[in-house]
Amino acid sequence: MLKQFYREIKLAFLENKLAIYISFLILIFSLFLGYFLEPYLYSYFNPVVDDLTQKVETGVIQLTFADIFLNNILIILQMFIYGILFCLSVVVLAYNGFFIGYYTAIQDNFFAVLVHLVPHGIFELPSCALACASGLVLFNFFINFLKSYLKEDLSFKNSIIKNADKLKQAILIFAVSLVLMVMAGFVEVYLTGSIANFILGI
Predict the structure, then answer these.
(1) Using CA atoms, how far apart are residues 83 and 136, in angstroms rounded to an integer?
(2) CB neighbours (10 Å) of residue 24?
(3) For a surface tag, which of 30, 109, 143, 148 has the fewest beta carbons within 10 Å of its beta carbon?
(4) Is the pLDDT of residue 202 over 70?
(5) Domains in the chain: boundaries
(6) What is the pLDDT of residue 62?
(7) Are 83 and 134 in contact (CB under 8 A)?
(8) What Cα–Cα distance (Å) separates residue 69 from each residue in 11, 61, 81, 125, 144?
(9) Quick one: which of 59, 57, 195, 60 has its CA closest to 120?
(10) DSSP state of 152
(11) How far apart, in Å, are the Cα atoms of 183 and each of 12, 154, 176, 187, 191?
């Protein structure tokens, strides 16, 4: 059963590699733009940074595994569900890329920021890209479903059945994204601080 599950995930990635490539390119591009266009993004993102900082300092946001996990899950879930509207998955991903790039650029110690971001970022960033890709695949399913239902005159049920593979692939890609985000949350809460302190203390 595990082998079958692995084969289905592999097939989902192979058949939707264009959506995955596009998502990773959008993420990388937005990260660099957020970093290099920091002066032009100040008026947009600095209020967000100030608000987050205040909420953390006052305890409104607590950096527990549950809080971080729920926040990150909400983000990738938005990218998946917004796939029905196509562009919004991309917008959510790009916004987060811009914000991370901007946040990195405004810090005084670039190396220290990287040390604090990389340990969980190696899981979190791919998770976000895959969540966006799953949203794009979901959009693909939705378009094919509409074609079957409206143009081919199939029933609602048969239209879903005909395109069920694409829906399943969207869910499988999102499931991988979810697993990566769980790992990112665990590393961020329990390991990132220790790793950063060790490296910076050398």
Answers:
(1) 5
(2) 18
(3) 109
(4) no
(5) 15-201
(6) 65
(7) yes
(8) 28, 12, 18, 14, 33
(9) 195
(10) S
(11) 21, 42, 11, 6, 11
Residue 158 CB contacts under 8 Å (≥ 6 apart), including other chains = 148
DSSP SS3 for 37: coil
Q: Is the pLDDT of residue 200 over 90?
A: no
- Helices 164-190 & 2-15 angle (0-180, nearest 10): 100
80 vs 74, 161, 165, 184, CA distance in Å?
10, 20, 16, 18
Spatial separation of the C-alpha atoms in residues 66 and 190, rounded to whole Å: 12
Model confidence over 29-56: pLDDT tens digits? 999 999 999 999 888 888 888 888 787 6
Using alpha carbons only, give the angle 129, 96, 180 rounded to the nearest 5 degrees. Answer: 40
Expressed in percent and rounded to 5, the helix, strand and coil fractions of the chain are 90, 0, 10
Lowest-pLDDT choice from 39-43, 85-89, 92-96, 110-114: 85-89
Radius of gyration of the chain (CA): 19
CB atoms within 10 A of CB 170: 25
What's the longest Cα–Cα distance across the chain? 68
First-to-last alpha carbon distance for the chain, in angstroms, is: 47
Q: Which residue has the tokens 């190396």?
A: 111
